[in-house]
Amino acid sequence: MDAQCLSASAVLGITGRKSAEWLRLRSLQHAALVKQTGFRAYANAVFALFVARIFMDSVSLNLMLGWALAIGIVQVRAVQTAVDLSDIEKSGISSAEFGHHVLSSIMTAALWAVPVLVFAPMGSTADLTALLVIYAILICGGVFFNTSAPLATAGFTLVLGIATMISLAAAGLWLVLAAVAVFVIMTVLGTAEIGRVRLAARLAADDATEQRETVSLLLREFEENEADWLWEVDITRRLRSVSPRFAFALGHAQRDAEGKPLLELISGSWDEGDIDRSLHELAERLKNRENFSALIVRVTIKGEKRWWELSGTPIHDDRGRFAGFRGVGSDVTEQRASSEKIAYLARYDTLTSLPNRLQLNEALGEAIKYAEKWRSRCALLMIDLDRFKSVNDSLGHLVGDKLLAQVSARLRNILSEDQLCGRLGGDEFAIVIRDADSKEIVNETARKVISTLSEPYEVGHHTLYVGASVGSAMGLRDGNTVEELMRNADLALYQAKDLGGGEHCRFEPSLHALAEERRKLEVSLRRAVLEEEFVLHYQPVVDARTEEIVSFEALVRWNSPEHGFVSPGKFIPLAEDTRLIVPIGRWVLRQACVEARAWPDSIKVNVNVSPEQLLEPRFHEEVIDALSSSGLRPERLEVEVTESIFVRDAATARRSLEKIMALGCSVALDDFGTGYSSLGYLRTLRFSTIKVDRSFVQGAAQNSNESLAIINAVVAMARSLDMTTTAEGVESAEEAEMIRKLGCDKIQGYYFGRPMPQEDARRIFQTEKWRLRAG
């Protein structure tokens, strides 16, 4: 029962006599009353002597002795009852025992009414006054000492008050009678209120005790069953109550760790000069007696560096004095290592170990700010490899990736201190020059890049020749934002490529030809959207163990009447820039669902969705329309998104995905680890699949420890989050076998099938078993 909601009837014990709560409240009240029974008996005896002294000259001795004897008998009986109820808190009080106690109080009041009704008329007014003073003391004492049982106290007050008022009425003392009446009413009301307050306090104390016991029980269970541990230090920061689990974490026996300084044990030696900053922060929190939560601390246990996550709070004794700290901790070394590995993916390209687009954007932004502040210049060089596509097409992606690794190594060797080189993607690189006040530094850097990258490469048993084209833009002359410099440097790069490659072009306002070509392509693309010039091809995704098809990824293709076959790598970015990707994506979604309806029920269709589509407020309704018009069950549609959805408007993208998931569709995270970190969303969004990027697969095929570790980390993370993994870009039987051993659930790549028209996809299901093998 809530202590703040106690009613008067609950406090007095009038209602609910058969309920367990009633028994609990009465037991709490009378437990305190039992302890005061002896004091009440003593007080009654003393005041009975006072009454005998007052009326000894006016009342007969026999009558006085008879009254005193009756008082004594009632008090002796009360003491015997108290002895019987000595364990009332454990056994409880029955309704009959409660009634007996109330009746005992009323009988005591009736006996005390005898002096005012019988003795007072025989005495003087002074005798009556003295008697009234004694009554007032008895009533006030009952209110103060006996309000733990307010009904008995109220009954005593009412009986004695009524008797007194009768005697005063008989004596004609009306003014005194009125004062007594007011006194009785106020006393009864005060008895109920004080009784409520005391009962509420006792209930609160009992609840606090119960909570402490519950917390203690939970802490014991936590210590016994969880992987974490509890820790406690005294006011001198020395360990106490060291548990076996904490002692194991410290690398000491319990008896050896007990009483030792915490900071000394976890720092290796507190006197060393290379104490980690996190340990100093922990020491400051302990020194300042501050609460702390999830504090990451680097500790040294027997010479080994580890990471702990500690939470602690100051503890105080019964007098409120500081008594030390108590908290929980856990070893997060492995989690931190995994987090650092995944965080690395957010800023570095794993194939080349160069900074990725995100870090390049940040560096360029800082260079622009520096140029604005000091009125200097910065520069951006965009680099694209010449003839790289022919290497990929003729020798395969494995050789191409090895070539890219050598290219990145050469680029690192030609950079100066204020230059940063990174990979934008594919065979595109960029260099940010922070201080480009000298006009020649850009030309000189571009010449070094072209000459260095044009030298022959030895990849395996092949001697390869590729060149490089460079486009540059100067900040703040050619733009004062990252986007402007990127765009203008890209236009200059297009010009260098159009000149045949191996050239460096600086951005000039006259370089509008590429923009014009882009404009024409955009016009054709808009017409293609209206006339539906697109077609869909489907690439199979197979089960890693059985090699049976589990889904097809729908891939859009465009054969323009004006431009011929246009690569998706060319028109998709253009569509995203112009937001034409929204109607194109809507068409792809609808057509893919219609086509999937003709497949067996066990086969899913995977549809790529652009961030531009997810930002549409009615995107989930488009999914509903596509499913309802095609008759495809939601469980057969898997939407694929990339990490870039979390860059622009993460909240809107997340809401759209949650609505799609609510329909029953699944969501896959494509190109994981190649762009922006989305670990927080892996925790909150229930992706069905994580797709391992082709670059990791190819790196693992080259026995790259980095790529192998990343794939293992992604597979382990996916399993712990109840997600599946799909490896992309598998092109040989050896790669397929490697992927199986690494634990990926599904495989996609040229080894199992290239993107094919819908007719070829349908023919696959005409075979008895839907298994695909190379050749």
Strand order of the largest sheet: 12-13-15-16-17-18-19-20
- Which class best fits the helix and strand makeup? alpha/beta
Main sheet: strands, sense, barrel: 8 strands, mixed, barrel
Helix share bin: 55-70%
Instruction: Please tell me the overall pLDDT.
Output: 82
Rounded to the nearest angstrom, the radius of gyration is 44 Å
Unreliable segments of 5+ consecutive residues: none
Q: Span between N and C termini?
A: 77 Å
Question: How does this model look, in words?
Answer:
There is one protein chain. The chain is built from 30 helices and 20 strands. The longest helix is centred in the first third of the chain and has 52 residues. It starts with 7 loop residues before the first helix and ends in an 11-residue tail after the last helix. The mean pLDDT is 82. Helix 3 packs antiparallel against helix 4 and helix 20 packs across helix 21. By secondary structure, the protein is of the alpha/beta class. The strands form four sheets. Strands 12-13-15-16-17-18-19-20 form an eight-stranded mixed beta barrel, surrounded by five helices. A five-stranded mixed beta sheet has the order 6-7-5-10-11, sandwiched between helices.
